[in-house]
Structures are given as C-alpha cells and as structure tokens.
Fold each of these.
Amino acid sequence: MSTTVSGKSGTWRNWAGNVTARPVREVTPASVEELSAAVRKAAEDGLKVKAVGTGHSFTAAAATDGVLIRPQLLTGIRRIDREAGTVTVEAGTPLKRLNMALAREGLSLTNMGDIMEQTVSGATSTGTHGTGRDSASIAAQIKGLELVTADGSVLTCSEKDNPEVFAAARVGIGALGIVTAITFSVEPIFLLTAREEPMTFDKATADFDELFTENEHFEFYWFPHTGNCNTKRNNRSVGPERPIGQLSGWIEDEFLSNGVFQVANLLGRAVPATIPTIAKISSRALSARTYTDIPYKVFTSPRRVRFVEMEYAVPREALVETLRELKRMVERSPLRVSFPVEVRTAPADDIALSTASGRDSAYIAVHMFKGTPYQAYFTAAERIFTAHDGRPHWGKVHTRDAEYFRKVYPRFGEFTALRGRLDPDRRFGNDYLRRVLGP
C-alpha cells in the first residue's frame, strides 16, 4: 500500500540545507506499478514529477513544486546472478545497504565513492564516483536499467535492449524517467590495502603522474593556506585482513575527521582570521597509517560535518596546472578556506553526460563549511575550472547552463534529442534541468 501525503507535509530540504522545495503532494510507492500510477495521475493533474533520494545533491536536481516521489519502499536486492556477475537492486536502496548486503553474499562493486548514504539511483543519476586508474564511476558499472517513463510505461535498457537509452540514462539527472531498478556488475569480494600519508603539495603535484600510474586508486587532499596534503593509495591485496583498530579508527575518523574538525570549522566560521592557523594544525593532525579490509570499509568514510561543495572534472593532463592555479588564487585572495580540496581521477567512459565521457578525467572538489558564505570562493574556482573545459558534477554547486554543456560534452545533442523523445512534455522537468539541458 503506498502512502500519499498532502502538500501540508511541508518543505523538502536537501542534506546541506541549501535547497528547499514545496511539492503539492508526496507519494511513497511500494511497487513499480504504484509508481507508474503516480506518474500517470500527475500527468492527468498537469503536475511535474520528481523522485528524490537522500538529498545528498547540492543542486536542485530533484526539487519540484509538483509531485515528489520518495523511493524508500523500493529497496532491496531483486536478484543475484553469480554466473553473469550481476546484481539487480531496487532504485531506492541506499548504497550502504547494498554494500553490506553484497559483502554478506561474498560480492562487491569494483569501485565506489567515499560517501555511501545516497540511494543507488540518486548516486548514479548524478554521476557519483570514487577514484580509479582503471575502474570508473558507479554509473559505469551499470549493466541494465529499468525506468518509468513520462507516460507511465516501464522501459528496460542495456547494451542489447534500447542501447541508445542505456547510453544516456545511466547518468540521466532525472530527465529521462524515474529509475526503478539497476543491474550492477559485481565481482567476488576482495581486499584492499590503504596507505595514507602526509605529503607536501609540491611533491604530490610534481609526482602526480607517477602516483597515479603506480596505484589502482590514488587520491589526495590539499589544505588551503598550507603546502600540506594527505594522500591515500588503495591497492588490491592478498591479505591478511588488518582493519583499523577500534580506538585508532575512532580517533582518526570520528574525533579528528568529524568531531574536532566540526569544532575547528565552527571557530573558523565565527573568526575567519583563525582559519590559516587551524588549517596548518589540521593538515598535520592525521598521521600515516596502513590497513587492509574489504572494499566498502576502505573506499568509504563517515562524513558528519555538513558542507557545500563544487566539483569539476578536468582532462587528466590538465590537473596539475589547474590545481596550481587554484592554490595561487587562494594565496592572493582574502578568502579563508577551512575545508581541504579533494583530488581524484577516473578513466574515460561511454556514457553521454558522464563527467568522464570520452576523456580520462581528474576531479577537483572545493568545499565550504555549511553556513559560511561560499559564493566568492566557488566563483573564483569555477573561473579556473571552466578555463580548462571543466565539467561540473551534476549534483554539486555550479553556475553552468546548456550553452556551456553543448561545448564541453560532444554527445550533449544526443542526450537532449532522446529526452525530447522520452519526455516531450517535460513531465520530469524542473528549473535546474531547464537551465542545464535547455528549454
């Protein structure tokens, strides 16, 4: 039985609190049939429809003043095909639940992002990714999709069925339909050894090509106002398992990365002049460590300090120059930035609007503590990223529009033509999609 909540259920807010929406009604369907019926009913009432996940996007990609679909009853694994190496999962399943369920079955995704609070459909639709030399975003691991289209019908797609929809819908930004199930490629569970260590900015950038080439998964964080970075290398391991000890894990991940970090950010927000000093202390707080564990325990980490984020993908060969420009900009400006800048990579993939579509990419993510004015910093950073043909993450703050995307995505026209065919009346449209995809 689905529950329909009237408009007085009030306002929907995203995780960061920077986006709000007031839908006419909310629907929580318990089956694909109920979801189809909700889409048809919205069409009869002349209302737009959007599905919302856990609200981890910083953009208004899921905001609507029409019908808001909450997918929390569409969760769980539908089937595991060990022979094909796939798992089919309901769209509202949180990544955390998927990762834990797969681990119990002795299976794992090949690569994942560093947060696992999102729903599988929300994460893939916006192009969520981790870091990888050879393995790409979560969407690039999709083998099949099921979605409810604008007329309420259910469409399935894969490399064989409706391949032109499959080429676009894996990163569909909610524009082509409401995803109801995803089939992921999975593999037998494996171990990763993580090696985390401090490194200077100059060394991390000078040796970037080497560090990237030698490691399956390499990433680093640069602390603005300092010349310090924290690096992380994850590589497959034959074991044995050596997880982080409970106490040291609590000190590093909860106390330093969340607890003390929260206090430091509150202080920085109140007294911005203290930020460079705090940054120097923060950048030295985390010590080198090595541990071996199953993938989701290595790739992901808890993020309890709330922030607002902008992230751009630049061609991988442009990374070091882009990052050096960003550092010079921060040093010359009156900006006070308390959050580290995150750097990751992904190989080229074949998804029309993936940020790594057709090109090996590097990601630079800038963050600001929730409640701190971020516009000046993000505007200055965005100017640098766009000068290098950067492509913004679909779920993170940016000011780009369809005209810009037409230039940086060779397959942009292919996506918008498909949208014209699948959703001619823009049943799944909203202000954000109008801006990024055109009217």
Amino acid sequence: MVPVLAFGGILMAVMQTVVVPLLPDLPRLTGASAGAVSWMVTATLLAGAVLTPVLGRAGDMYGKRRVLLIALGLMTLGSVLCALSSDIGVLIAARALQGAAAAVVPLSISILRDELPPERTGSAVAFMSSTVGIGAALGLPLAALVIQYASWHAMFWVTSGLGAAGLLLAWWAIRESPVRAPGRFDVVGALGLAAWLVSLLLGVSQGGQWGWTSPRVLGLFAACVLITALWCVQQLRAERPLVDLRLAARPRVALPHIAALLVGFGFYANSLVTAQLVQAPEATGYGLGLSIVGSGLCLLPGGLTMLLFSPVSARISAARGPRVTLALGAAVLVVGYAVRIADSHHLWMIIVGATIVAIGTTLAYSALPTLILGAVPAGQTASANGVNVLMRTIGQAVCSAAVAAVLVHHTSLVGGVAVPTLHGYLLTFAMAGTVALVACAAALAIPKDRAGGGLRKVAEPAETVRGEALEGA
C-alpha cells in the first residue's frame, strides 16, 4: 500500500513540473500569446488550491479511497487531453483538471493513519510527504529528455501512461477506510473557499503582468478580503463546516499551518531560481550556459537526497517529536541558502546548496502532517492535511510572485537581452532564507504534546471510529 500511495504522490509532483521546460516554446507551438500560455501553470495552481481542501473534506465524509481514485482519474484525463490537443483553451482546461492531483498527498496521509499500525505510521507519513520534492526533482529532467528526443505531445502521452498505471495500482492495492465523518457536505463553504482563493492567488500570480497597483489586481485583493470575512462567518455558523475554524485556530493546528506557508515559500525559491541561474549565458559573468536537461539534472541530487532523508526525519520525530524536526528542517533551509549566497558561481557548490535546501524541505514537510495528525480528530485528518497543503501552495504562489518582482527589478543587458543579475539572485536567496528563519521560530512556538502519546496516540481515535463504523454496519 505505501509504495502505491507514494507513487501517486510522485506522479502528482511530476504532473505539476513537466510543463515548465515547455513554457518558452509553447507560444510558438500553440500559436497563443505568452500571457495565455502562462495560464497553463496558473490554472493548475488555482484548481489545486481550491480542490485540495474540498476533496480532503469529501474524503473524510464519503471515503478516502473513492476520492483518491477520482483525483488520480482527473489528473490522468487532463494529461490525455494535453496529449491530444494543441489548442490553448483545451490545454488550460486540461491543466486545471490536473490540479485535482494536489489532493493525493493529504488523502494518502489520512489513509496511512487509518490503516497502518502506530509503529509504521511515522516513517510512512514522512516518506509520503517527501514524494512532493522527489517528484518535482524527477519531473523536470524527465520532461526535458522526452521533449528533446521526441515531442511535447509524447511527453504528455508518457505522463498519461504513468497516471493510468497509478490509478490502476491504487484501485487494486488500496482498500476503503471505514473511518468517516458523517454529515452533509458544505456546498456554500466550498464555493466561498473557491471564491476567496481564486481572488487571492489570481492577484498574486498575475500581479507582475497586470501591475500590482492596477484596478484588476487591487479589486481582486479587495474581493479576497471581503469574501474571506463572509466565509469565516459562514463557517463558524455552519453545523458541519468545510473547514473547522475553531479547530484550526488552536495553536497546535494554526502554527503548523503558518509554518507550512513559510516553508512552502522558502523551499520554492530554490526550485524557481536554480534552473534559471545555471541556464544563464556565460556572458553574464555568473551563468553556466547549461541546457534544459543539464539544469534539470542539477536538481536531481536533491530529489534523491529527499528519498534518503525521509526515514531520518521519521526517526528524529519519534525520538524528539515532530515539532523539533520541523524547526530543524527550517534551520537547514537557512543553512542551504547561506551556501547559495556564499557561492553561486561553481556548479558543484550550486548543487550542494540546492541539495541542503532539499534536505531541509524533507525534514520540514515530513514533520508537518505528523503534527496535524496528532492535533485533530480522526474524522478530520484528510481535510486538515488538505488545508496544510493549501497553505504550502499559497506560500509557493507568493514566493513565485516575490521572486519575479525581485528579478525583474535587478536586470542587465547581455547581448541585447535583459537577464537577471547575480545580485538579484542573491537577494532571492536572502529573502527565502529569512522566511525559513521565521518558519523555524513558528515551529519552536508550537506547544508540546503533554499527553506524550506520540504516534500511538495519533492512531487511537482512528481505531475508535473504525470500531463504531463497523458496529453500525
């Protein structure tokens, strides 16, 4: 079961990153503008942000395996549509379908809590969390290789095959968990969540193109504030809310969510900047002039390191608690960015710095779901972890906008083309390192679990609810 769920998590991350090498050529390949092509990334981001907590709540209510299969099916369908079409409208819609895959990881973590014995839960959850980074590191070189030696449609056929394999494996290997949270689905809450998330993330992702002070962006942010306020009132009054805000406001839940947002910001800067930096022309004085494949391979050691360090994270959490693991992970992120600032000229040092950031990401991401699992009832694990993943997504979106803003304001002409300066890249590293330092402080502020039950305590509510469900069957 664990390898199958991990394969699904890796697929999710691969689907999100495979389009990145295509972005410079898609305007020519599709006949669309660069602004329209950028929606192939934005649509996936928006759909994933909205659907992650919604599908998480649906999994808690109607069955995690059932909703997991739906998410994998939508992801695969989106890939098939991308393989069949060159129309930008179809491509954007298909990429939005692939955004449903963002719910795979929180649903899988909840299944692991329900089905595994306590002594295996920690390592399995840590491994599941690390699949996000592993898939991201594998997706870029995989896509670049297929595009270079075949075609971009062939790349989507490859991902379609992988998605179909993941769907069939999940259908065969995963059994439905009897742990449920009965009640009526909060449709109004889901629509409200979608409205304020779209307003926020659309403004953040398009602010650089539309202008941060443009009426459209300011209007989106104003709408986000208003809708969020109304949504919070509705959630507090709802009998079965989509997001239990009273639970989310508790320090043992709220602080991990804040840390997730900050770590998402800190980790994503490394992925955004490394490929650009090593592909920069040598005439810049710092660039290495690597190909797309070469730049993707620079991130590969980090992905492999994440695979190796996920069991280490589980051991640290078992010995010292996930709170310490999260703080340590954020601190390692700071060290990684210090290395990036110290030397971004030599390829081996760039790889070392990126790999250290990957290690910190593994430690932090592996600890976050364990913290959430220990702080929420068994019937809310998928939805609570969905919110935690949502916070990571928001952090990544804000990071993308912040990095773009910094690099746009620090450029120089090389061969008549404006390219970011080394100073701009170093500023992004300093910014990400500072955010990671704040994440470390947030982790240390999380209250300790006085019950001292650890992972065994996490599993007990699931057993209780499972027994009640079986008695009522």
Amino acid sequence: MQQFPCPFCGLRDEREFHFSGEAGNIRPDTTQPVSDADWRDYLYTHENPKGVSREIWVHTTCQEYFMMERDTVTMAVIGIQQMRRDTA
C-alpha cells in the first residue's frame, strides 16, 4: 500500500485521497459564451504525461485540497504544496 503526504495531516494511506485533476487545467470563463469544443477540451483532454506530473488531490479525511508533484512511472512523490491561504 502506498502512502501519500497530506500537508495538513502528514503521511496517510493512499485510500484516504482522491485525484481531482491536472494542475493548470483552467476552467472556461462562463461569464462569456463557451463553445462545445472548449467544454470538451476542459473535461476530457488531458496531458497524462509519462514522468513528472503536477496534480490536484484532496485528502478526503480533512477535506483539504493540495497540489502533488509525482512521477507517474515510479509513483514516487516529489513534493506537495497546500492550496489554501491561511487567513490568520
């Protein structure tokens, strides 16, 4: 079983995490008309690189989203970064 690091809770079992998407996949601006092709590309076109990838994950236990950089071949976690801005 693989373990992933949560920036808030520490090292946890991979079953506590959910993949949310590629980092940098920008949602179309819905204040303007969006073509079917733009929606299709946003929803279904993904890079899926072999090697280092930056991805958005959520730790389902604490419900916090974070960015994880990992190697998609070896599954090694290279780094993590929290996405929330603390208001304190």
